[in-house]
Amino acid sequence: MFEKIKECIESYNTIIIHRHKNPDGDALGSQIGLKNILRANYPEKRILCVGESSTRFGFMDDSVMDDVSDKDYEDALAIILDTSAKALISDDRYTLAHMTARLDHHIFCEKIAEVEVTDTSFESCCGLITAMAVECGWELTPIAAKSLYTGMVTDSGRFRYDSTTSKTFMLASHLLDESFDIGDIYRNLYVDDFSFIKLRAQFVLKIQFTDNAKVAYIYTTYEEAQKYGVDSFTLSRGMVNVMGEIRGVEIWVNFTETDDGVLCELRSSVHNINPIAKKYGGGGHAKASGATLADKNAAMQMLNDLIKITEESV
Question: Which residue from 56, 81, 127, 135 lies 20 to 30 Å from 119 (Cα-Cα)?
Answer without folding.
Answer: 56
